[in-house]
């Protein structure tokens, strides 16, 4: 028989054991993260943590994200980057965006930085000046931003509109300065920043890294191999293969709101014979990732992905190497990149899909896929393994420095000098990504040269003996830094800038940094940062940023004078100068620092001095029996998945209205309720808009809309819609839209009849089926854009349906609860009593970024009132109609109506706000109809990264 006291003692022991077990489990689950042997961060006790609570010991930051359309003129303007006179834009493959990321110190909110990734070539001085002016004019709340804390980086796409340069030499291929092109870049970037500012909230930051082994090769390996062998042995590859990812999470629910990556690969996947505007591989990777995140429960609505450049100077996306495209089947010369005929003109790098004769489109998609796959896989792993950004404060500094004849001392005690800007002979030879002209070759340091070029370029400016000595061993072709007629040819004054966010340090280079230059620079910065940080520094380099000062090669690479060395404009000591200037100023990044450096000697502002020789006829004509928008060629009644489907319309110049935040082309799908819903627009890589003139004097033109259904299509009944704006001589512009007849898209081996009423579950909405101009026919009393989209919120991107009546809610009535309805509602018709696009997103008035509708009434606010008053870019409100109670696109930003960034939709009444629904309550509605398609990655995520060497 047990003693009476045994049971209580057993119970006490049991409870004690349970308490100890609970304590152990609690510690295992909620202990702070620790580092494994490789220095990776992970949470003990599992692969992740509860999303219901913030992690211990992680610093909060102010975080904000914003995105806006910056697509400039897609026709009648040279594309920037390759400097090819024949590469004049004739259409659009994918819209361009600025993506802004703001990070601030919660304890000291004035300590903050803005990092912008533009889908453009570079962040030029002229663009930076315009953005700073625009922010200053936007209101007192933006006074916290200035030169010291704004970085303008770019994806470095060579397929974007040019003619916005501050300096003369790069303006020559673009025939000067185009204010419409410039205005689109500046106004869109300002808008992205203001959206990011309005979305500021507390959040967390962490960093992860991954390796991408097959997205770039070194295009100047001959020069790279002249770096010291012992230095090269420290690294496993001839390019940097590490992608660094900064994750942004909001503190309220730990949802991911954005990511920012740094990885080096040139934006030259699209060849120099491509004439369609696009953001190249990084712009496309952003779109792929943002599309993927729409199906990811960990991501907030309106997720933004920025793919920034790093030390890309010699990193080419043409991973199959350089070959002579002259029929010889030979590789280009390893040393000079020339072919057997001694010229570089036939030498071209091959991308991974080079057998597709499509101007590099397929290769671009593949390189983008490899980056997007890496980013999404890394993001998914960061809940279990990442490095939290922690520590004291957010800091940034910026100053200008004149590199002409600047003396400084190397660490070994040697006194050296940088030079006025100059470009060498191999600059004219181009690269294997974009070959040069005539008989120039790469590696011209000690080679005999055609004396003709000395005579030709000597007429412009003969370099002084001092300049020749300073630039040696570079043979000088363009002595740009010493030429000032008609205005400065090249920059001598550059931006020196760095950011620090916790232990993350961002070097902002004005030059394209080569692989080894970036490694040396990052190592020097990390060594200095270790003196004042209590955590291991994480250093990335962003290049090019803020201005454009060509390239930055190591002294050893400079001596070889390949393209990158010939384009290192300040001489052989340029890299050491940049290291000296940045490392020597890192005291401004230390915790507790409140000082800022003297701004230095200001660069010239050449925007008013620049010329514009890009002359074209600025009106539209049409055959007498035609109307704008008439369908000249209908799609076939039925197509199979994988087909390219095309229609041709009577067109008008897209320069009449850039349709920022909207679209020129759309694919609409017939739903089971009989309504048409947009599922593709200009954002979609696989929907291509092409414009061409058919009669030069009368300015007749045609537009092709082509849908490459191999990319991201599903079976269904569809039609094309074309949006345009015609401009007659001495008359205002008139918007129009037109639709084709419906067509069926079927899977391989499937057959459908050509379609009748009820083909997809209902009639084709009462519109006449004949194509041509859609004259607001029929009625819509159902819910237009996503009432019952199919449960996945995939309805369309910017409901642009026309009709006499809309009494349903237009943009995502029942989107599926995720608010993904679409971004640029552009409905035309007599009445809208539903809410157009998120009516009152968050009470901050950010609803209308580019509400460009025309008609009798606008009582929503369009794009932010009188933003800048600086007369730059001519955003010009060009709306037609009886009344505008709201403010259109910067209503009186400059009053010059330049370029019509403006706002020209038709309709009698819009009381909703056009462009920025309430995706996540932060005003980040999206700038241009970004919610497209089936929300998948066009099969890109199925293929994993594979090492590949040419």
From TrEMBL:
It comes from the Eukaryota. Residues 739-950 are annotated as: Disordered. Residues 586-744 form the Neutral/alkaline non-lysosomal ceramidase C-terminal domain. Zn(2+) binds at residues 156, 266, 512, 551. Its EC number is 3.5.1.23. Residues 762-792, 803-818, 829-844, 855-870, 881-896, 907-922 have a biased composition (Basic and acidic residues). Residues 61-580 form the Neutral/alkaline non-lysosomal ceramidase N-terminal domain. It catalyses: an N-acylsphing-4-enine + H2O = sphing-4-enine + a fatty acid. Binds 1 zinc ion per subunit. Residues 1-28 form the signal peptide. Keywords: Hydrolase, Lipid metabolism, Metal-binding, Signal, Sphingolipid metabolism, Zinc. It is an enzyme of class 3 (hydrolase). The keyword Electron transport does not apply. GO terms for cellular component: extracellular region; membrane. GO terms for biological process: ceramide catabolic process; long-chain fatty acid biosynthetic process; sphingosine biosynthetic process. One of its GO terms (molecular function) is metal ion binding. The keyword Zinc applies. Its cofactor is Zn(2+). InterPro entries: Ceramidase_alk, NCDase_C_sf, NEUT/ALK_ceramidase_C, NEUT/ALK_ceramidase_N. The active site is at 316 (nucleophile). Belongs to the neutral ceramidase family. This is Neutral ceramidase. The lineage of its organism: Eukaryota, Fungi, Dikarya, Ascomycota, Pezizomycotina.
């Amino acid at each position: 028989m047990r003693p009476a006291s045994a049971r209580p003692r057993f119970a006490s022991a049991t409870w004690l054991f349970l308490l100890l077990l609970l304590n152990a489990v609690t510690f295992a689950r909620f202990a702070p993260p620790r580092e494994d042997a490789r220095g990776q961060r992970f949470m003990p006790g599992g692969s992740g943590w509860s999303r219901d609570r913030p992690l211990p010991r992680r610093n909060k930051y102010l975080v904000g994200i914003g995105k806006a359309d910056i697509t400039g003129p897609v026709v009648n303007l040279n594309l920037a980057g390759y400097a090819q006179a024949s590469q004049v834009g004739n259409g659009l493959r994918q819209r361009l965006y600025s993506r802004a990321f703001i990070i601030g110190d919660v304890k000291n909110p004035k300590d903050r930085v803005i990092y912008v990734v533009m889908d453009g070539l570079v962040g030029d001085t002229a663009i930076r000046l315009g953005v700073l002016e625009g922010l200053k004019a936007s209101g007192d709340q933006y006074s916290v931003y200035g030169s010291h804390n704004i970085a303008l980086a770019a994806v470095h796409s060579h397929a974007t509109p040019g003619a916005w340069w501050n300096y003369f030499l790069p303006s020559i291929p673009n025939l000067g300065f185009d204010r419409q092109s410039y205005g689109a870049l500046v106004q869109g970037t300002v808008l992205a920043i203001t959206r990011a500012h309005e979305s500021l909230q507390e959040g967390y930051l962490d960093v992860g890294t991954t390796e991408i082994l097959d997205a770039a090769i070194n295009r100047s390996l001959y020069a790279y191999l002249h770096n010291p062998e012992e230095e090269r042995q420290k690294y496993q590859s001839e390019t940097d293969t590490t992608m660094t990812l900064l994750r942004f999470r909001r503190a309220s629910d730990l949802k991911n709101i954005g990511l920012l990556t740094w990885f080096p690969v040139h934006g030259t996947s699209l060849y120099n014979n491509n004439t369609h505007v696009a953001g190249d591989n990084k712009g496309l990777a952003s779109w792929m990732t943002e599309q993927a995140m729409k199906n990811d429960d960990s991501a907030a609505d309106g997720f933004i992905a920025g793919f920034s450049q790093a030390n890309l100077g010699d990193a080419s996306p043409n991973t199959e190497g350089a070959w002579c495209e002259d029929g010889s089947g030979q590789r280009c010369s390893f040393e000079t990149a020339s072919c057997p005929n001694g010229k570089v003109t036939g030498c071209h790098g091959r991308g991974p899909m080079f057998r597709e004769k499509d101007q590099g489109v397929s290769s671009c998609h593949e390189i983008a896929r490899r980056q997007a796959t890496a980013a999404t896989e890394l993001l998914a792993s960061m809940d279990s393994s990442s490095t939290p950004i922690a520590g004291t404060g957010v800091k940034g500094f910026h100053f200008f420095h004149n590199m002409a004849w600047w003396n400084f001392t190397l660490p070994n005690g040697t006194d050296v000098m940088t030079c006025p800007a100059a470009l060498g002979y191999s600059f004219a030879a181009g690269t294997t990504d974009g070959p040069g002209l005539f008989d120039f070759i790469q590696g011209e340091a000690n080679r005999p040269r055609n004396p003709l070029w000395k005579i030709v370029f000597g007429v412009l400016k003969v370099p002084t003996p001092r300049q020749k000595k300073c630039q040696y061993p570079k043979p000088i072709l363009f002595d740009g830094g010493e030429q000032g007629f008609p205005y400065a040819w090249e920059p001598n004054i550059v931006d020196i800038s760095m950011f620090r966010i916790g232990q993350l340090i961002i070097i902002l280079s004005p030059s394209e940094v080569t692989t080894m230059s970036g490694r040396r620079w990052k190592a020097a910065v990390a060594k200095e940062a270790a003196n004042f940080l209590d955590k291991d520094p994480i250093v990335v380099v962003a290049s090019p940023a803020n201005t454009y000062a060509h390239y930055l090669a190591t002294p050893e690479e400079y001596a070889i004078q390949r393209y990158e060395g010939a384009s290192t404009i300040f001489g052989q000591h340029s890299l050491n100068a940049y290291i000296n200037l940045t490392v020597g100023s890192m005291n401004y990044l230390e915790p507790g620092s409140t000082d800022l450096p003297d701004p230095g000697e200001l660069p010239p502002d050449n925007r008013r001095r620049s010329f514009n020789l890009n002359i074209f006829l600025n009106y539209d004509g049409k055959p007498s029996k035609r109307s704008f928008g008439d369908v000249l060629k209908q799609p076939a009644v039925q197509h199979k998945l994988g087909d390219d489907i095309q229609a041709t319309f009577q067109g008008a110049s897209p320069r009449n209205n850039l349709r920022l935040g909207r679209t020129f082309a759309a694919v609409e799908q017939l739903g089971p309720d009989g309504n048409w819903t947009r599922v593709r627009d200009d954002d979609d890589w696989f929907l291509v808009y092409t414009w061409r003139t058919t009669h030069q004097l009368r300015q007749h033109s045609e537009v092709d809309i082509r849908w490459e259904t191999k990319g991201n299509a599903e079976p269904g009944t569809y039609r094309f819609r074309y949006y345009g704006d015609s401009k007659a001589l001495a008359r205002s512009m008139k918007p129009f839209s037109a639709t084709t007849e419906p067509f069926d898209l079927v899977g391989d081996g499937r057959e459908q009849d050509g379609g009748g009423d009820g083909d997809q579950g209902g009639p084709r909405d009462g519109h006449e089926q004949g194509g041509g101009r859609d004259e607001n026919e029929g009625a819509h009393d159902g819910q237009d854009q996503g009432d019952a989209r199919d449960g996945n919120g995939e309805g369309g991107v910017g409901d642009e349906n026309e009709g006499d009546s809309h009494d349903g809610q237009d943009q995502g009535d029942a989107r599926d609860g995720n608010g993904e309805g679409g971004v640029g509602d552009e409905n035309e018709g007599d009445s809208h009593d539903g809410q157009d696009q998120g009516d009152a997103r968050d009470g901050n008035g950010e609803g209308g970024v580019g509400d460009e509708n025309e008609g009798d009434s606008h009582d929503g606010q369009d794009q932010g009132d009188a933003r800048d008053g600086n007369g730059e870019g001519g955003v010009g409100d060009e709306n037609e109609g009886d009344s505008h109670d709201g403010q259109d696109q910067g209503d009186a930003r400059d009053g010059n109506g330049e370029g019509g960034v403006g706002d020209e939709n038709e309709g009698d009444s819009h009381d909703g706000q056009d462009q920025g629904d309430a995706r996540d309550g932060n005003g980040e509605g999206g700038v241009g109809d970004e919610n497209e398609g089936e929300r998948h990655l066009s099969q890109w995520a199925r293929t994993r990264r594979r090492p590949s060497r040419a």
